[in-house]
Design a protein that fits this description.
Radius of gyration: 28 Å
Largest sheet: 6 strands, mixed
CATH architecture of the largest domain: 3 Solenoid
Number of domains: 2
Helix content: 25-40%
Strand order of the largest sheet: 3-6-9-12-14-15
Bound molecules: coenzyme A
Structural class: alpha/beta
CATH superfamily of the largest domain: Hexapeptide repeat proteins
Order of helices and strands: HHHHEEEEEEEHEEEEEEEEH
Oligomer: single chain
CATH topology of the largest domain: UDP N-Acetylglucosamine Acyltransferase, domain 1
Number of helices: 6
Length: 258
């Protein structure tokens, strides 16, 4: 038992650069406190002491700001950083080594609609091993987030996410993030889900984009100007020749586009 608790603490220390000692994790990490109280409420729930299980879970919510339903299934090494506002629904499943930041919801899509019929069904997401979910992200419905996928801060995800994918935005879409693990390599944990090295300056990226745009526009203007001068010019400067009409005369112009 003590070894399991020590492993949980070590998993948290390994994923938070701010954690300095095990004692600090025990005293100051609501994610750790909520996880320990969840293990208790879950044991009560599974022994059919449902009300007591729910009550312990509510005590934990009051103390930590993290609400975990005792019916959820949670693997080893869950790290809930900061914690406040995290909600984990009854039929959620969480694999090993998962990281959640504050404000994350693992919820149902429409729990308030026809709730009687939804009671015995899986309504909440499954997070496979090594998933990282950014602050404020909402993962809704009985979907699966594949191994080591990363969900961006404030994303809303209602569809399955493949392993190792990075998903951002509302509705969630897959992007190729700089820190995205490639599927063939062993994914590594990145604190806050964001790589710290080689971060490009966003202003420089914007200026580069504008310069590219200006160059493209300049080339088009030059091209148009030379075509216009060439058309009314008798001096022998090369002009654009109109395309020859197709023999049949009824060729679809769109077929020339690539
Ligand atoms: C999703 C995330 C992991 C991606 O990190 P990354 O691999 O470095 O990805 P990038 O920064 O290269 O972003 C890729 C694209 O997604 C966009 N993007 C990244 N995070 C986003 C987010 N949360 N919402 C919307 N768009 C986002 C970027 O602007 C970029 O778009 P572009 O290609 O048009 O420029 C990271 O941005 C994130 O949200 N981490 C969670 C952090 C968190 O919750 N911290 C709380 C600590 S207390």
């Amino acid at each position: 038992m003590l070894k399991i608790i020590r492993d949980e603490i070590d998993a948290m220390m390994a994923r938070d650069p701010a954690a300095r000692s095990r004692l600090e994790v025990v005293l100051c990490y609501p994610g750790f406190q909520a996880l320990m109280l969840f293990r208790l409420s879950s044991a009560l729930w599974r022994r059919d002491w449902r009300l007591l299980g729910r009550w312990v879970s509510q005590v934990s919510r009051t103390l930590t700001g993290i609400e975990i339903h005792p019916g959820a299934i949670i693997g080893q090494g869950l790290f809930i950083d900061h914690g406040m506002g995290v909600v984990i629904g009854e039929t959620s499943r969480i694999g090993a080594g998962v990281t959640l930041y504050h404000g994350v919801t693992l919820g149902g899509v429409a729990p308030s609609v026809d709730s009687e019929n939804q009671r015995a069904t899986k309504r909440h997401p499954t997070l496979e091993d090594g998933v990282i979910v950014g602050s404020g992200a909402q993962i809704l419905g009985p979907i699966t987030i594949g191994d080591c996928a990363r969900i961006g801060a404030n994303a809303v995800v209602t569809k399955d996410v493949p392993r190792c994918a990075t998903v951002v935005g509302i509705p969630g879409r897959v992007v190729n993030g700089r820190g995205a693990p490639r599927s063939e390599e062993k994914p590594r944990f990145v604190a806050y889900g964001t790589p710290t090295g080689d971060v490009p300056d966003p202003v420089a990226r914007a200026i580069e984009g504008l310069l590219d745009e200006v160059q493209t526009l300049r080339a088009r203007v030059n091209h148009l100007e030379s075509a216009r001068t060439g058309a009314g010019d008798e001096s022998g400067i090369e002009t654009e020749t109109p395309p020859a009409a197709s023999p049949s005369g009824n060729e679809d112009p769109a077929s020339k586009c690539c």
